[in-house]
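In keeping with the milestone schedule agreed at the kick-off meeting, the structural modelling team has produced records for the first pair of proteins. Each record is given below as a sequence line and a structure-token line. The laboratory manager (R.T.) confirmed that both were archived under the project's standard naming scheme.
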Amino acid sequence: MKAVIIMGSKSDLDYCKKIAEKIKQFGIDCVLRIASAHKTPEKVLEIIREYEEDDVVFVTVAGRSNALSGFVDANTHKPVIASPPYSDKFAGADIFSSIRMPSGVAPMLVLEAENTALAVAKIFAMKNEMVREKVIQFQEKKREEIYKADEEMR
């Protein structure tokens, strides 16, 4: 059970580390890799092949023109979660390259590091009781935060 985070460039490393940290809180192993669908497509394919036989979820992190998510999804039967980092530079408009995919290509789009980790955990929770319990605990903690905030408003 492993999440393989593929980032398009090293400039995404800090965001990917946040995702990895959150994924590990669910008891899931995580691997960080760098490869670009535009510049090194063969490297992307090598990474997919390296983990294809494992119990993995691929997380793709690419901004600007996100070909990485669709490319990975089109070349694996494993789940792919696109988690593009937000960019003030483009006022968030670069997210559109993660939304529209050709037919037969369906990476899931999840924004924010914590939500990406939760999506990975929910996929693994379908088969792993320990992860399922951690997801339930995480959700309960979030509920408690809302109840506590409401009480503080009174």
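The second protein of the pair:
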Amino acid sequence: MNYEISLLTTMAIAVMFALSLNLITGFCGQISLGHATFQGVGAYTAAMLGKAGLPFLATLPLAMLLAGLLGIVVGLASLRVRADFLAITTMGVGFLFVGVVRQQNALGGELGISSIPDHGLGRVGFMLLALLMCVAMAALSVYIRRTWMGRVFNGIAEDEDTMRVLGIDVPRFKLAAFAIGTALAGLSGAFYSYHLQFIGVDSFGFVESITVLSMVVFGGIGSVTGVVIAAALLSVLPAWFQVIGDYKLLVYGGLLFLMMRFSPGGMTGLAKRFFSPVNTPSGSQS
């Protein structure tokens, strides 16, 4: 039973993480190859505050705040770059985060942070709270997509220059996407640190950024339901098939290539093509 609870908790954290990136990449079209950095900021913030005596629930808003603030800083630095250059910029931030943490003994350095205090919710309680956060983040994503902000995000993703011509303050909305997405990534990081009760900087490197991007692409960029399903599925595959865990980057990188080459819409796009009715030319017999 403990194994199943742990697996469901891991799945819930992965879904939270993927939904946070979907707000940036899926909704606003900003490619991030360093998104694990913001999960790492949340994880380290919660771990350090927990070891300092702060209760788990009190660490959550602070983890979100620090991750969101870093997201705004990165967003400000990335306002003048797009597409490939934005991806390279965010990837550089990820490498910078790993390098800084490794040199700081106060953050555990190469050894990481161990003996993170218990959250006090019990295994089942912690799992239920993580699942509740998944539902809340999915609902928030759907709500944002249906608001004026979500429509602007979609417009920026489709044609940023046109949105500027229409008088939309594109930089402001880009920063909003980064702030919300990175803050939610920090929330997933806080859950991650208390779930494992140990964190190391290697858990928030380039491989993890590619992993979460694979989840978003595999589910369908911008699709809330698709991303939830893909994140849940891909997060448990290494536990079900050990060989995938050994070649994680290769498998997820392959999924990225195949999806972008043959089905850019991910599973959502495949489902739409499969279930959509075939249009019959007018005048023909069915």
